[in-house]
Amino acid sequence: xxxxxPGTTEVQDADWYGEDLSGREHTAVRFSGVDxxxxxxxxxxxxxxxxxxxxxxxxxxxDAAFLNCSFTGCSFFQAELTACKxxxxxxxxxxxxxxxxxxxxxxxxxLPGADLARATLAGARMREADLTGVRAAGATLRGLxxxxxxxxxxxxxxxxxxxxDLSALDPRDAELAGAQIDVTQxxxxxxxxxxxxxxDAPG
Length: 203
What we know:
Blueprint: E1 10-12, E2 25-27, E3 30-32, E4 40-42, E5 45-47, E6 50-52, E7 60-62, E8 65-67, E9 70-72, E10 80-82, E11 90-92, E12 100-102, E13 120-122, E14 140-142, E15 154-155, E16 174-175, H1 183-192
């Protein structure tokens, strides 16, 4: 087992394959080239950490926190994140194919230009998240709190958006062809376009 240990500021090329990281806490540590494939962790906390070229393939984290962390060139292929916090974290050049997010708090996260087309996110709080230019065509994004999120240029074509808060979405600045929405969301989008929904006209 490889552990960063107290006072460690950098972990490089470590093999944490299948490690149980439950309860571990790391602050201001730089992780570079670390293999976390199939690692698990309940209640692990990473604060102000940097992850570069790390593999989170098939990891399973529950009630874990990645607070104000940065991720560059990392893979989250088939990662399962349940009730996790990514508040204030940011990513660049990361891949999220088949990633599954169930609840949790992703408020203020920075994911501009991310490809979430093959990801599933449900029930997570993503208030004031920066999702500018995110590619989410065909994704499952249900029950998300996207209030005050930055959604300009986002591609939601064919995505399942039912139950998500779309009050911050300008449909004139997004791709929505074939997206699945519910009646409440339809009213929100129509209102955003300046139209009013009223009762049927008398026959």
